[in-house]
Automatic annotation (TrEMBL):
The keyword Secreted does not apply. This is Orotidine 5'-phosphate decarboxylase. Substrate binds at residues 11, 34, 61-70, 124, 186, 197, 217-218. GO terms for molecular function: orotidine-5'-phosphate decarboxylase activity. The keyword Lyase applies. It comes from Fundicoccus ignavus. The active site is at D61, K63, D66. Pfam families: OMPdecase. Its EC number is 4.1.1.23. PROSITE patterns: OMPDECASE.
Amino acid sequence: MNQQLPIIALDFGTMEELQAFLELFPKGETLNLKVGMEMFYLNGPELVRELVAAGHQIFLDLKLHDIPNTVKRSMTILAQLGVAMVNVHAAGGTPMLQAAREGLLAGTPAGAQPPLLIAVTQLTSTTEALVAQEQLSRVNLADSVAHYAQVTAEAGLDGVVCSPLEAGDIKSALGREFLTVTPGIRLASNDVQADDQHRIATPARAAALGSDFIVVGRPITLAADPVAAYRQISAEWQAAKAQTQA
Ligand SMILES: O=C(O)c1cc(=O)[nH]c(=O)n1[C@@H]1O[C@H](COP(=O)(O)O)[C@@H](O)[C@H]1O
């Protein structure tokens, strides 16, 4: 998956809305696209195969969280779709994380690269209060994220989903190769519109903090001019990335 390009979250309620969105882009342009639960429940594997055939790089975001056997068998099936990235919840535990990896390897066609396997630490919609009061965590949100990242790395996965605010600490603790995929992206001009996200940052700040991939939905899909918003976010992300590498 091309780290220079934001991953666009395709969160649409109908296939017509999705098609209308994709048709805004020049024909043949390769995009990083995230198919999440909404689109997958609507049109499932067929949609994923179509997007892959059109040359796009797909993050299949189904956040698997179940017993190891179920996750393993499901991953074996998903690995056959030709996607570039899939995810699970780190809270599923080490046996489930390892089972996910085994399932992916078993299902990847001979000669093909297995999809990157990423674990969600704490959702970017999660707050300090929720971690304390509902998860009854003995540690704060940042420490919980760091711990889940450690567990994920030890289980042999490729990286985590976290907020940009936690990416730097995770990279310092677990190394440059361990990937951080960060949703919760808002432009400075729409910081006030955090929607249901609680731990947010701009594309530039996410790059400065060490994020490897940004995932962006509504700031692009709901923009008056989605392609212009995508270009603006891409430019900001790429410029800040280049600075961090200089
Ligand atoms: O795994 C994800 O992609 C994910 C994890 C997380 O912690 N937070 C999060 O927002 N996401 C996804 O990232 C996208 C963010 O969308 P926007 O808030 O519209 O930019 C949504 O499709 C979420 O499902």
